[in-house]
Here is the input.
Amino acid sequence: MEYVHSVWNYIASVCSCMHCAEDVGAQNIEPNERTHLLVDPVNHSPALRRSNSDGLSNDYSHSLPKKDDQTALSRLVQNTAINMINVGAMDCHSLEHQEYTDRIKIYSQRLHQQWNNVQHPNITMKGLLKDVPNHQFYITKPISAKDTLQMKLFIEKALIGVNQIQIDHKEAVVVPFQIP
Amino acid sequence: METQLEKVLSDIVTQQDTVGALLANRQGLCLGAKGDINPNVSGIGMAISDQVAALEPKSAVSAQPEARHPTICLYSGNRRCVIQRNGEITGIIYKQHTAAPASD
Here is the structure.
């Protein structure tokens, strides 16, 4: 039992050390857009701590033949605890409203800066006559009704003319070969 | 054979301001030309009408014949070139601006 206690103390000290390191890190590094919202959620989750102690007590308080089963079970519990994120238990990340708005401002500013730095190759001049000098003059020029009417009549008459084209053959079209 | 076509072309070049007329087939080959126009432009004219028709693909299935066969007018100095395609054939008319510009 003495051994168990020593192990447990060691684990607890490690955990607390990690907590310390985390806290120091969280305080020193100013939060930015790359800061995780949930700082190491696994260690904050009370379920894991519980499972740790469960695992330890289970490992040593049960008989030997059942040890494999117990370790398997405790591993299962531990894995579940690792996958679980207890958001409610973490109250150290509640941001003030002012802080929220400040961050929104900073991030949108940075986004704008990046957006301006990016080269946008897809934005090109739209319009057929943008490169033509004095294109406004030509755009405002109307197509006169006379022209379209003349063209319409021309095309209609020409279609009739084209349809009347036929070959007047004076000789035989199919010529028999001189096959001996 | 093509007398009717010849007559149509001759008629068109006698009209006011018209200096030349040309007809091209679907392949852009010249079916006939009259007046001051190079028969070699038949292919270009056909290609232009093709490209312009592609600008508004929806109008190709439109019920209105004006929408189906767009008329293209190219201005250049005192001349203008009118192009229209009607199914199989494309017509090109060269016109010269002589009198004062008409308001329409």
Notes: Chain A touches chain B through 26 residues (CB under 8 Å). The longest helix of chain A spans residues 2-28.
